[in-house]
Amino acid sequence: MNIAAKPPLTIRLCGPRGFCAGVDRAIQIVVLALKSYGAPVYVRHEIVHNRYVVEGLEAKGAVFVEELNEIPEEHRAQPVVFSAHGVPKSVPEDATSRNLFYLDATCPLVSKVHKQAMRHNKLGRHVVLIGHAGHPEVIGTMGQLPEGAVSLVETIADVDLYEPVDPDNLGYVTQTTLSVDDTAGVIARLQERFPNLTAPAADSICYATTNRQEVVKQAAPGCDLFIIVGAPNSSNSKRLVEVALRAGAKKSILVQRASELDWDDIGHVGTLGLSAGASAPEVIVNEIIEAFRARFDARVELAETVQENEHFLVNRELRDIELTTADMAFVNG
Predict the structure, then answer these.
(1) Which pairing describes strands 297-304 and 62-65: parallel, antiparallel, or unpaired?
(2) 224 and 250 Cβ atoms separated by less than 8 Å
(3) Tens digits of residue pLDDT in 85-96
(4) Per-residue pLDDT tens for 48-80?
């Protein structure tokens, strides 16, 4: 019996990909809190935008809530963790008023944007925030300042419609997970309209977002299909899909698991690009590769631009708790 040979496939696996230091830290905080304080540990909002990660933490004893009033009275002594996206100032204030013990897992690079916005405000500037309305990070950044102190713009069209009270006294910051190219266009239009606009002390788009977009740009030309592993509510993952298409991939899709792949729609591919958003675990990247290996004679080649070695310390209360490879195997494999 002749078995048809599998069609050849080259997989361009991007590096860096997947977890950034801020996401890794946030997940570690929940895992360490569970080891230190026992279950349940409450988490306000998804700790990171990835359902696989959330379900993995739920299996360990984490309980996810949207608001602090959902925490039962009998569990008020248990810790509550704030997500990596950051929260408005009103949230820790609410936690304090309820006598809750909280651990803030806000990414340090998001906290840096908060400080940049507060500095603009302290120096008397109205803050222009470039970001996506309704995203938790944007809500958190706007919530660092009094109502009315921040104006949100998302596109060049928004900038054209923006009419500030004092156009000569503005300072801008950006969401950390935006498209680098799109944001550059918005900033250029802001500077064109408002020549006295003050930039933040350092770039607001984080290194991980920039790095992942840059390697996708380099890997995309010649790809028949580019797969980004990530969640539909993950801003940085959705931006990678757009970047791949603009850079020359014939098609680009966002998937959360290998089970979502539509093989009839995928059809014949000779070159596949593969990357993962900053909140997507490596175990799912491996799952996608194995799914293609089952159908193709796949050869993986690494497309790497830089190596990331950033590491952010967890909260002081958790630093003496041992974190083992086994503790993180549910996401790292």
Answers:
(1) unpaired
(2) yes
(3) 999 999 999 999
(4) 999 999 999 999 999 999 999 999 999 999 999
Contact 154, 129 (CB under 8 A): no
**Count of CB atoms situated within 10 Å of the CB of 157:** 11
Please give, one letter per residue, the 3-state secondary structure of 186-208: HHHHHHHHCCCCECCCCCCCCHH
> How far is it, in rounded angstroms, from Cα 138 to Cα 131?
6
pLDDT, residue 3, reads: 54
Nearest to 209 by CA among 308, 97, 322: 308
Q: Where on the phi/psi map is residue 231: left (φ > 0), alpha (ψ -120 to 50), or beta?
A: beta
CB 200 within 8 A of CB 172: yes
Mapped onto helix, strand or coil, the DSSP state of residue 105 is coil
Known active-site residue 290: no
Name the DSSP letter for residue 143.
T
Catalytic residue, candidates 55, 66, 74, 137: 137
Angstrom distances, CA of residue 73 to CA of 34, 41, 278: 19, 14, 35
Asked, as a colleague might, if the bond just before 16 is cis with ω within 30 of 0, I would say yes
Instruction: Dig out the tokens for 316 from the structure.
Output: 């002081």
Q: How far apart are the first and last CA of the chain?
A: 37
For helices 180-193 and 207-219, the axis angle rounded to 10 degrees is 120
Strand partners, 42: 63, 80
Q: Which residue ranges of the chain lie beneath pLDDT 70?
A: 1-4
User: Mean pLDDT for the chain?
Assistant: 95
pTM: predicted TM-score of the whole model, two decimal places? 0.93
- Residue 68, classed as helix, strand or coil, is helix
